[in-house]
Amino acid sequence: NAGVTQTPKFQVLKTGQSMTLQCAQDMNHNSMYWYRQDPGMGLRLIYYSASEGTTDKGEVPNGYNVSRLNKREFSLRLESAAPSQTSVYFCASIDRGAYGYTFGSGTRLTVV
Amino acid sequence: TQLLEQSPQFLSIQEGENLTVYCNSSSVFSSLQWYRQEPGEGPVLLVTVVTGGEVKKLKRLTFQFGDARKDSSLHITAAQPGDTGLYLCAGGNNFGNEKLTFGTGTRLTIIP
Question: What is the arithmetic mean of pLDDT over B54-68?
Answer without folding.
Answer: 96
